[in-house]
Amino acid sequence: MSVVHRLTAGWLVDHLSFINQCGYEVCDSCAYPGGVTLNTSVTSVGDCRATSTFAAISPSRDGPIPGPANLIETEGKTAKKRYVFRKEFFDISKPHIAAAPEEQLWQGCPEVGLTKKRKRKCVFNQGELDALEYHSKVRKLIWEGTLHLVQEGLRSGFLHCTAAELSCRKNVVPGHVGCGLAELCEMAKQLPAVNESDHQAVHLLDDETSMSEQDLLSYVTENSSNSAKIVVLMGQKYLVPPKSSFLLSDISCLQPLLNCNFCIWYMLTWFLTVLTCRYSYLSSWQIKQIPVPALAAPDCLVVTWVTNRQKHLRFVKDELYPHWSVKTLAEWHWVKITRAGEFVLPLDSLHKKPYEVLVLGRVQEDVKEALRKPEDVLPIPEHKLIVSIPCSLHSHKPPLTAVLAEFIKPDVECLELFARNLQPGWTSWGNEVLKFQHIDYFTLLQNE
């Protein structure tokens, strides 16, 4: 489970464990005559000439091109390859900016730092004043709740006080992975239109891993099996977890999602200004046109990541949610800590905060629906914390499935909008939806 500890204040979450429990085990059924299959390794980041089928020979990271000595006798059995997400992406051992000793998480009191702010020569603008006012309201909840969860994590051994002192190795993080999914979605607008009557709404993945760009962009792709699959796109390999589906497209090509006749009961979305330039800025009007009402079932739980800028938070709560017929129920916070339990940034930093906001609401179509309470689910608490060691990859958010399980019906259809990764039981959409599924973010653990 991704939840390490659950307290009244919220949850301490293990993001890395969640990813590796998704089941990235690939069945290599491409056997050679005589019951043998290739023992291949992962293609490197820079090799855009990677082969378009999983069984073909490709250069190895750790050795030369496989030859007869690299063949494995399968004796009629299907070889399996197991991948795990690279743990160095979660090796956050030190704060990004060190706080003063009296501001450390396990010392002082919740009010520390509020009275000892560094003087600024310039005057605060209105946006900064709004941010300070909001921070003053949530600070104590975040401080005390995180403190309790961190103490529990230290007692259980999940967190380590000396982690920052002991860890001295330098993380090696790939700079550029993939060949540009966002650019591919932009180029797809120039492709000939696909006749929807000739194509099914959902394409099921089989053992053939190579797919044309037009096929991948034309309909929802689903891995309905119990094992992971590898998709090769533009010479790059991407791992697709079991029981997951996705649509690779930008906001102008959402029709395949609508064609699937989903009945979404849990929807995760992003307020777009939180994203990098790969998701180009959308106006308020464009954001409102995202067809959330057409996709969502009555009582659907909608959760939106929002930046700490107050005008964005007000827009989501006061304009966007009402436009989507979503009633705002709560604001939660994701708190980012190191392996030693410190905030990744000083809690009272004026530049960036060590937390992000989640706005939770439910879809209500009419008065009758509004009066009807969701069955078999608990009411949404007004405030909760999700505390975790963050991924060093930008915008790789922590999993919410386990923490929200008690607030949604079991075995419901879930959808993430503007996603950058996949997970079992979910449909994901975005123009970089496979970004963090690139095989170079994973390590080939073993052959079974």
Automatic annotation (TrEMBL):
InterPro entries noted in UniProt: MT-A70-like
Pfam families per the UniProt record, alphabetical: MT-A70
GO cellular component, one term: nucleus
GO molecular function, one term: RNA methyltransferase activity
UniProt similarity note: Belongs to the MT-A70-like family.
UniProt-listed PANTHER family: N(6)-ADENINE-SPECIFIC METHYLTRANSFERASE METTL4, N6-ADENOSINE-METHYLTRANSFERASE
Protein's name in the database: METL4 protein
Lineage, highest ranks first: Eukaryota, Metazoa, Chordata, Craniata, Vertebrata
Gene that encodes it: Mettl4
